[in-house]
Design goal:
There is one protein chain. The chain is α+β, with helices and mostly antiparallel strands. It has 7 helices and 3 strands, in the order H-H-H-E-E-E-H-H-H-H. The chain has a domain of 96 residues: Nucleotidyltransferase, domain 5 (2-Layer Sandwich), CATH 3.30.420. The radius of gyration is 28 Å and the shape is flat. One of its GO terms (biological process) is translation. Its main location: mitochondrion.
Amino acid sequence: MSIVRPLLPVLARSLGSCSGLPLARNAHNRTCDENDSVNPNFVNRNPRNMEMLRLARKPQGWHLEASTPKYWLVLEQSQRHITGQVVHYTGTTVVSASTREWAIKQQLYSTTDVIAIENIGRILAQRCLESGITEVYTDLEKSKESSEKVRLFLSALTVGGICPKEASVISERDVHRTTWSHPALPWHVTEDEVLKEDQMKNAQ
């Protein structure tokens, strides 16, 4: 304490001599340069932004056909490698993870065992989240009980934050499309109403 007390008056005088308020005021009043200006119009360049908002129209086919998922989860197993992919309904591969990648292969003892397929599920889930994909459709649930590898793969995806089921698309209510005078916009229908309708259909 004897060393700290003599320093207090010196510290008070040094703080009193600092004029920080004029500096802050001058920095606040300075004119903004070109780098500080913000564009009031924001353009989202993500080509699948409307799909993420569940507002994009997609091919529905005939009313007797099964619904078409937007993102398919595909698992390919060969004698030497394991590959997990998320395929868009247009046929393009959006996200993939495979033991053929050297960064993954060098960390694995085997490229075909249960440890490899579980890590492929974790990596694929992380890459999906980084790409903005949180829901995918998969038909691997049927073989989950009979295959330990498929069960570990789906479990790693679920733990990683990926839902193995897609939500329904928010669409218009009017079924008489020939009598449209002004087409209903999808964003005029709230998500809560669509979820209630889905619950009623599932209950029936």
